[in-house]
Structure formats: C-alpha cells, structure tokens
Amino acid sequence: MSKGKFITFEGPEGAGKTTVIAEIYKRMQKEGIEGILTREPGGIRISEKIREVIHDNEYKEMDGMTEALLYAAARRQHLVERVLPALNEGKIVLCDRFIDSSLAYQGYARGLGMEDVMTINSFAIGETMPDVTIFFNITPEEGLQRIAKSGAREQNRLDNETLQFHQKVYEGYKLLLEQYPNRIISTDATLPLSEVTENVWKIISSQLISQENS
Ligand SMILES: Nc1ncnc2c1ncn2[C@@H]1O[C@H](COP(=O)(O)OP(=O)(O)OP(=O)(O)O)[C@@H](O)[C@H]1O
Ligand SMILES: Cc1cn([C@H]2C[C@H](O)[C@@H](COP(=O)(O)O)O2)c(=O)[nH]c1=O
Q1: Least buried of 17, 41, 113, 133, by fewest C-beta within 10 Å?
Q2: Residue 13 annotated as binding?
Q3: CB within 6 Å of ligand 2 — which residues?
Q4: Which has the closest alpha carbon to 185: 2, 6, 8, 5?
Q5: Ligand 1 test: best mutation among 19, 158, 191, 193, most atoms within 8 Å of CB?
Q6: Nearest CA to ligand 1 atom 14
Q7: Cβ(138)–Cβ(191) under 8 Å?
Q8: How far, CA to CA in Å, does 201 sit from each of 28, 144, 213?
Q9: Cα angle at 45 between 25 and 18, to 5 degrees?
C-alpha cells in the first residue's frame, strides 16, 4: 500500500517541466519534505538505456508499437526499482512524465489508440496511477521555439517529429484533461518562469495539506 504521494508533470516539448520541477524539488528540500525527483523514460540505469534506444535519431525505422512497448518497459523497471520503494517509504515522488505521455504521444499522436496504449501499460503499472498530474499548458509551437532558442539540448527522435505530430500530442493532452478532471490540473506554462514555479508550488502545497488532513 502506497503511503507517499505520486506527482507527475506533463506537457509538450519545451513546456518548462524540467526547469520548474528542479525548483520545486529545491523548495521541498528547504521545507524538510522528503521526496525524490525522477523522470521518464529513465530515472534508473536500465530505463536510461531504453531511453537512449527510443530517442536515437538513427532509429527512424522504429515501429510505433515497438516504441510504445519500450516506453512501457522503461516505466515498469523505473516503477518497481525507484517509484514504488519511495512511495512505500512515505516520500513525495516528483516524476517528469508518466503514463499520460504514452497516451498523448503513442496513443493519440502516433494513432495507436489511447485504450490500447492503456492496456499495454496496465501490464506495466498495475493499479499505480499518479495522485496528481500537473499539465504545463503551452502550444507546441511555443514550446519547440524555446528548445530551438536555448540550444541547451540535442534534439531527439521525438523532438524531430513533424509540427503536425506535436499538435496531435497537444490535442491528446486536451482530451486527457477532459477524461481525468480530478487528477490532471492545468497550469499556464507561458507565464514567466517565476510565476509558473509559484503556481505549481501552490498546487503541490495544497495537495500536501489535503493529504495531511485526510
Ligand atoms: N516559463 C518560461 N519562460 C521562458 N522560458 C522558459 C520557461 N520555462 C522554461 N523555459 C526555458 O525553455 C526551455 C525548455 O525548458 P525545459 O527543458 O524545462 O522544458 P521541458 O518541459 O522539460 O521540455 P522537454 O519535455 O522537451 O524536455 C529551457 O531553455 C528553459 O530555460
Ligand atoms: C514517458 C514518455 C515520453 N515520451 C516522449 C516525450 C518526449 O519527446 C520524450 C522525453 O523527453 P524529455 O526531454 O525527457 O521530455 O519522450 C513518449 O513519447 N512517451 C512516453 O511514454
């Protein structure tokens, strides 16, 4: 039985998730809140290896279903090795992407179908779903522009998909917001970084307070 809180962060490329989560994690540490910061795909060595394979620009021939299965395999290992142990110790788990990325990217944008992608993932995650998911709301155009402008990281196989693909990802997320209104909270990711961080911190604090009172 999980005792901690599983908080995931979602959104299009360049939405600001990684930057904001790092700030949130620092604040948690300052406040003495025990937690971990991790990411998908990755977070532990096997899943980081799988990440390298999925994102390699060389593998243009990768089949969509193979891609979905690889994300699910990386997710499974990360869940059992890193996420569940932390939750069982009562920690707050901040995770950069989780199941909703598979639903939006592979299920909707790749066209595999959200239900089928959920079925594959049920095998990987069982009953474990995030307690709360924060959606960084920004158009793919604006997010991709940020990445191009910063030049801070290499563009991977997914980044290099067409703009149309990224627009479908965004549409997929919008559908998920409708489907899971109690779990997914949208935040305006176009605001200045300090404001986005403050808004995300408010959402997380209110979740932690509601947990204390339950
Ligand atoms: N609110 C903001 N306003 C302007 N620039 C921002 C903001 N948030 C982040 N950035 C910048 O946008 C770029 C992408 O941010 P970041 O890597 O945090 O996004 P991400 O959501 O993790 O992207 P991805 O999922 O594609 O890795 C970085 O250069 C970051 O400094
Ligand atoms: C978990 C997950 C991720 N993706 C995609 C989304 C991004 O393009 C990359 C991850 O890169 P980031 O810089 O760490 O955000 O992978 C996906 O398509 N499906 C998934 O399940």
Answers
A1: 113
A2: yes
A3: 13, 39-41, 71, 97, 101-102, 105-106, 158
A4: 8
A5: 19
A6: 14
A7: no
A8: 9, 24, 18
A9: 30
β-pairing, 92-96 vs 5-10, is parallel
Q: How far apart are CA 172 and CA 169, in angstroms?
A: 5
Q: What is the pLDDT of residue 154?
A: 79
The residue written with tokens 């990987």 in the block is 124
Q: Is the CB of 154 under 6 A from ligand 1?
A: no
| Residue pair 44/82 in contact by the 8 Å Cβ criterion | yes
- The pTM for the full model equals 0.97
CATH code reported for the domain at 5-212: 3.40.50.300
Where does the chain have alpha helices with state H? 17-30, 45-55, 64-78, 84-88, 99-101, 114-125, 140-150, 163-179, 193-212
Residue 8 CA: which ligand is closest?
2
Which tokens is 93 given?
């788990």
Q: Is 18 in the pocket of ligand 1 (CB under 6 A)?
A: yes
Q: Backbone phi, then psi, for 60, in 5-degree steps?
A: -70, -20
pLDDT digits (tens, 9 = 90+) for 11-65: 999 999 999 999 999 999 999 999 999 999 999 999 999 999 999 999 999 999 9
